[in-house]
Amino acid sequence: MASKVRTTGSTEALLSDLARFARGGAGEADSRHLLRTHLPIAEHRRVLDRDTLLVLGGRGAGKTQLFSVLNVLSNPADLAGLATHGPGLTSRHSSFVAGFTVSRKEFPPHDVLEKARIENRLGTPEHFWLGLLVGVLLRDEKIKHSLLSQLDQSLVHDFSEKLALPSLWLPTVGSELEKLRHAIDHADSFLESNSRELTIAYDDLDLLAARLSNAYPLIRALLAFWLHGSRRWRAIRCKIFLRTDIFAAEELAFTDSSKLRPLSVTLRWSAENLYRLVLKRLLNGEASEQWQGFIQRKIPKTKLRHEAPWGMLPITDEKAHRDLMELLIGQYMGADKRRGDTYQWFLNHLQDSRGDIAPRSFLKLFESAAQKQQNNPLQNSEKLLAPEQVNAALAEVSQDRITELREEFRWIDSFQRDIKGVTVPIERAEFRKLLKNIEQEHFPEYVRSSKDAIIDYLIGLGILRETNDARIHVPDIYLFGFGLRRKGGIRRPAA
Fold it and tell me: Residue 234 has what pLDDT?
């Protein structure tokens, strides 16, 4: 047995750090902090592939985090280092710039776009994206200089200085379409001749309108615009970050849209990458030195390395992660293995019905358990967390997950009211009868036809699952947040 080398003070410091380590990341003003909290994973190599147009993922899968990381990396070597299995970049000097996001002041805010949509001032959706692209290209001083001979000074001024005011430049796109198209072609040739590659990245597309259904025409136009543009331009590329369920909507279908699937990558997190993310957050936080001392009681230094600009990177495997959980909590979620081993328990109770786990939820469970443990300190123990506090924190994480869904889906509240208090698993026919007041008008048009279509849609989202005997079940990550009960399994956490 390992000797108890830590003092109460060091325990408190580690718990305090664990109680806030899930915060930060996307949207963080300090780019150094952003990179030190981000874990490069193998899937990022496919994202960096120049022919990948679409980056798909559910809420909390890390799309916006990755979008933010790409937009602060300017060194090609750092971009190559984003892929853990080798670079995915071309030999050209590659850089990323934002093509649209609500978090940047150079783009129109969502309420301006919504007002323009209502007043029918957005015009042709493709013209909107073409104008934004011209404006983004003109923010590069060398490209801007090369385009001065192609565009009138007034056009250059409006698109480079007033991009957040679409009412000023949108009418111009239609009347100057030929010039603007030629200007983009010229910019592409300029970049290619200088061995440069510029990738335009798009995020927050679900916020283009107050209701998602109203955003579909703009999203569909963006996908079509770049599907055609990627064939024409060699040095101007794009990455469109989009929710998986939005991409699956029939409303986004257009001629050749099926060709987008091979050009997409879906962000999914393996068990080992989730645990590496936990380690990376701990090893690069305020208590990094204390965490290194704590972790190295079971995980050798050879499993950790420092790499700029990412900070400490864990090169760990399942055994190391099991050792980490034994250090933090113990081998089991109770007195013996009947309660489940801690490593697998976290995975089992945080995955949706597709087997996917959102990194945000995974980090949040550690954080919430640590916050609860601070109010119930362990006595004479070398562990940091008690299984009881982890169990209780699961309900909080589940509620947070429902809150995230509520931000995406307007039907969540009515769905929750219909099913609250129900015990699962439940026969499909009985579950169908529960959906009396669900707001069907907020679902995609193709699933409004029947309650069974809605159930199948929810199964596709990972919120529900259908058992082998055709009963409807709900994963724990959603169970407690929806106010449901289930037969057997873990005891419902105390409120």
Answer: 95
Amino acid symbol at 377:
P
pTM: 0.89
Amino acid at 194: N
Comparing 54-63, 84-93, 142-151, 167-176, the range with the smallest average pLDDT is 84-93
221 close to 118: Cβ distance less than 8 angstroms: no
**Which phi and psi (to 5°) does residue 340 adopt?**
95, 145
- Phi-psi group of 421: left, alpha or beta (phi > 0 → left; psi -120 to 50 → alpha; rest → beta): left
Give residue 80's pLDDT band: very low, low, confident or very high (50, 70, 90): low
Written as one string, the DSSP assignment of 391-409 is HHHHHHHHHHHHHHHHHH-
Query: 359: which 2 tokens?
Result: 């990194």
Q: Where are the domains of the chain?
A: 8-21+270-403, 42-266, 409-486
| Contacts of 296 by beta carbon, 8 Å cutoff, 6+ apart | none
| End-to-end Cα distance, the chain | 35
Residue 475 and residue 352 in contact, taking contact as beta carbons nearer than 8 Å = yes
The radius of gyration of the chain from alpha carbons, rounded to an integer in Å, stands at 25
Confidence of residue 93 (pLDDT cuts 50, 70, 90): confident
Could you read off the pLDDT of 6-51 as tens digits, one per residue? 445 588 889 999 999 876 544 444 777 888 889 988 888 889 888 9
Own/partner pairs, 463-468, CB within 8 angstroms, 24+ separation? 463/352, 463/353, 463/405, 464/353, 465/353, 466/428, 467/425
Place of tokens 């015009």: 123
Burial of 406 (0-12, 13-18, 19+ CB in 10 A): middle
